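Mods, move this if it's the wrong board.
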Amino acid sequence: MNHIYLDYAAASPIHPDVLKVMLPFFSEKFYNPSALYSEARNVKEAMNSARAQIGQVIGARPSEIIFTAGGTESANLAITGVAECFPGSEIIVSSIEHEAVLKPANKYNANLIPVDEKGLVKLDCLRELISDKTVLISVMYANNEVGTVQPIKDISEIVKLVRVARLKKGIKTPIYLHTDAAQAPQYLDLNVARLGVDLMTLNGGKIYGPKQSGILFVKAGVKLRPIILGGGQEFGYRSGTENTASCIGFAKALDLATQNRTDTSKKVSELAKYFMRELENKFEVTINGHKKLRIPNNIHVTFKGADNERVLFYLDQNGIFASAGSACSASSDEPSHVLKAMGISDKDARSSIRFSLSKDTTKDEIDLVLKKLASALKA
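Not the wrong board. Structure tokens:
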């Protein structure tokens, strides 16, 4: 049986071109990039080229790119790294962040920005939460569960105004803006200057790159304390021998994602509109998240009165793979904190399914999913 995969928000296969550039670094180019002999220096140069390539994509200096083992580590480094530099300071995060942001932020009693029923952060509430002690605000670029895209540029303007006000009052505490952009590269602008962010998390496993690969962008001048100590690799921010193959693979995956962004967005948008229209025509459903301000591949649906586990199991038995939300918290019996924050009841949360498409998804696959959904909801 051919499988239909609709969980690209959780993981993507490695692109053949990404695998191709990675393979030599598992074998003939295995050397430690910190060693001093010529072959190791060549590996170091390849790492530097990958770092420069990433910097060019997001509009950053190579020295502002820290290679990590994925989005979770990058988010933890951003939150914990800043908080540890400023004891007694305050952190603000949105209530619909990934657990990789929420859990480290909770260690510092972070304030939560509420969201509306579409999953958009309430900017007036954010303004009220900011105090003279606020050192970090973290708001994800595109939500991994419902796809809503946040107004990062507007938030950066709020941060700029706070900085001006602090200068006038003689307050020296900085205020930084971090965004988890793991779901964004294939669909949204990543230029850090245009976004106005000081820190940005990216994850290779979501963009046809290797799992456990990613970066944290750290703007020059941002104070950050490392959370992994050792030999001082990655400009002292992330010790440990670099996973060279993953770093090279991540850079290639990011480059491909941004090169093909226009075509990918157009194709996926058209397919998603068709899927949502057919869902609304054929079933009693609610499409969750913002109808317009969303990444096109994410379709989060509440099937009124359905048991999402039963539906997902039926689909699985028929070779169709979707999810109830974030794969990172799929083992929890608790309804999604994202849906709760949006005001969706526990009952409706347990009737909700996330379908996440990709450039490889076809209309024929969507038609078959619709057919199987009809059977699943009757079962």
